[in-house]
Each structure stands twice: as C-alpha cells, then as structure tokens.
Amino acid sequence: MCNIKITGQILTISTSIAELARGTHHRNGPLPTSVPTCIFLRSYNVDLCYTPMILADVFKSSTYARDSDFTTNERDDPVIIQFAANNAKDLVEAAELAAPYVNGIDINCGCPQKWALQEHIGAFLMTEPETVRDMVHSVKAHVDIPCSVKIRIHPDLKETYEFVKRAEAAGADFITVHGRTRKQKSSEPVNLDAIRFVKEVASVPVVANGDVFSLTEAEDVFDKTGVNGVMAARGILQNPALFAGDKHTPWECIERYIKLALGYGTNTFIFHHHLMYMFEDVMSNAERKTFNCLSSVPAILDHLEKYWDLDVARVMA
Ligand SMILES: Cc1cc2nc3c(=O)[nH]c(=O)nc-3n(C[C@H](O)[C@H](O)[C@H](O)COP(=O)(O)O)c2cc1C
C-alpha cells in the first residue's frame, strides 16, 4: 500500500482549472477537519489541491476509512478528491459519498507501484481505456461535479491519443498528464513534447505534471507545452512557497505550517513528513537522519527549538 499519505501532495497553479472546479461546487455539511496544509498552501498562490489517492472500494464501504482518509472543511476550497478504482461501480459509490464535500473527482491512472498494478488500479488503467471511459461516464451520470483523469504517457503516443479521446468523449472535464511512462523513473527527464502533444490533441483543459521545482520551471512548462495548468508534488512539498516565487522554503512558511498544523491537531506522521520535506534542502545528511527519527510532536518541536531557534510559544501566540 501507499504508506506515505501527505495531504495536498498534488497541486496546480491553474486558475482556469480552479474556477472550473469551483463552478459546480456544492457543500452540504462538514466532515471532520484536518487539512491545514491545503489551507496554508493556498496562501502561497496554489489554486487547487488534491487529496492523496484514496481507494474507492474501501472508501465506499467503511465509515472508519472515510474519516481517516479524507477530512475537509469550509476553508479547504477548491479541493479535488482523487480515487483509485478498477470498476465504475465502486468509483461512483465513493464519488457519491464524497461529492457534497469536494469540488471534483479525479481518477488516478498514474500510480506505478507494484501493489497498484496488481490491484488493476493506477497506471494499470493506462492499458484499459474502455474501463476508464466507463468510469468517467458513470461518474458524470451520477455526480454533478467535474471529473478529471490523471494519466501518464504511453511509450507510443498514439495510445495516449486514443486514451485521451475516450476520456474526453465520456465527459472528462480536464486531464492531468505526468510526462513519464509507467516504467520511467523520476530520475529520467519529463517528456514535455509528449505533454504538448496531449495539450494539442485534447479538447478539454490539460494540466502538466512532472519536475517543477520553481516558479521559473512552472513558467517554462507553460511556455513549452501551452497547458492550462501546472501541478507539482515533490517541489511543493519541499518548498510550499514555490508558486509564490520563493526559491527556498521561507522560515515564516515553516512557522505558519507549524501553527496551523498544531491548531488543527494534524496527525504526527503527516506533521513530521511535511517538515521533513521542508527541511530537506537545508539539513545536512546527519541532521536529517536525526530529525527523521523523531517520533512525537514534542520531540519534533524540542528539536526545532534547540537547533533551529523555533520559538513555539511565539509561533502559537
Ligand atoms: C509523497 C508523494 C505522494 C504522492 N501521492 C500521489 C497520489 O496520491 N496520487 C497521484 O496521482 N500521484 C501521487 N504522487 C505523484 C505525483 O503526483 C507526481 O505525479 C510525481 O511526483 C511527479 O511530479 P513531481 O515531479 O512534481 O513530483 C505522489 C508523489 C509524492 C512525492
């Protein structure tokens, strides 16, 4: 299983996509809240946040899973819930439960992990365009909010063309494309030509994803591909102020995250991992090793007070 679930791991700077999501937004009531990351990221020019991938079959059948996998509140807007499913029925049932609380449903066709491929979800679906078409069609028939698909490219772009055409004919509102094939490692460069190809052939908006670690790189992707939005994962985890133009995580950003996360009672694992990402650039290997082994919120705060001059009392005041 995906054991790193970090809230707001996927983000875009596309205003048009955000408006699309916001346009058909309905909210009927609150779910338990624990989403400081997305709220905080929006203050750094992030237009749209996604949840981590959530298994539709588990989500639809377990209240416990729903409560632990997905939390939101009125300030968490716009937000897209991303599901992994291998059939339309599970997806629709999960989408119907989530729809009152989100601005869009996204179908994950990109997760390349072995367990996901075995479950016939994630990147496995890139070879199942008919299944994805049925999923999009069914979501659109049952749920009145946008439905998007996050894909990877195929080694043969003709297949990507066929895939995209089916998804949009079924009603997909936009497509996010990670410019690598299922088998490519993240150390290999993203294929911007392939993303541009998707943008050129698609009649719905396209969001580009992969290797954006600065605002300049995001602008470069816009220029080279003509896409409607840019999504970042690792870059924004390392530097939440990326889209605000900061080259490195500003200290005030770390303080604001701590204040918001502690205020919301964010779970220790998520709190720790976000801070591990934010400190990745600035801590030495030895420091990182020590920091990454801390196992409680007090230990994390003590460490930051001792070695990084964090003033918890001031931050929380
Ligand atoms: C910690 C982490 C968690 C991720 N979780 C998801 C996920 O739940 N769903 C998804 O579609 N992609 C997920 N991804 C993949 C990213 O969305 C993205 O496609 C990939 O990291 C390449 O973009 P980047 O270069 O901006 O990181 C995750 C990536 C990271 C680093």
Automatic annotation (TrEMBL):
Q: What class of enzyme is it?
A: oxidoreductase
- Family annotation (PROSITE patterns): UPF0034
Could you state a single Gene Ontology molecular function term?
Answer: tRNA dihydrouridine synthase activity
Q: What is its EC number?
A: 1.3.1.-
**Pfam families reported for this sequence:** Dus
Name any cofactors this protein relies on. Answer: FMN
Protein keywords: Flavoprotein, FMN, mRNA processing, Nucleotide-binding, Oxidoreductase, tRNA processing
Per its record, the protein catalyses: a 5,6-dihydrouridine in mRNA + NADP(+) = a uridine in mRNA + NADPH + H(+); a 5,6-dihydrouridine in mRNA + NAD(+) = a uridine in mRNA + NADH + H(+)
- Show where the DUS-like FMN-binding domain sits: 39-281
Residues bound to FMN are Q82, K150, H178, A233, R234
Give the highest taxon in the source lineage.
Answer: Eukaryota
Q: What does this protein do?
A: Catalyzes the synthesis of dihydrouridine, a modified base found in the D-loop of most tRNAs.
Q: Which family does it belong to?
A: Belongs to the dus family.
Q: What is this protein called?
A: tRNA-dihydrouridine synthase
Recorded source organism is Jimgerdemannia flammicorona
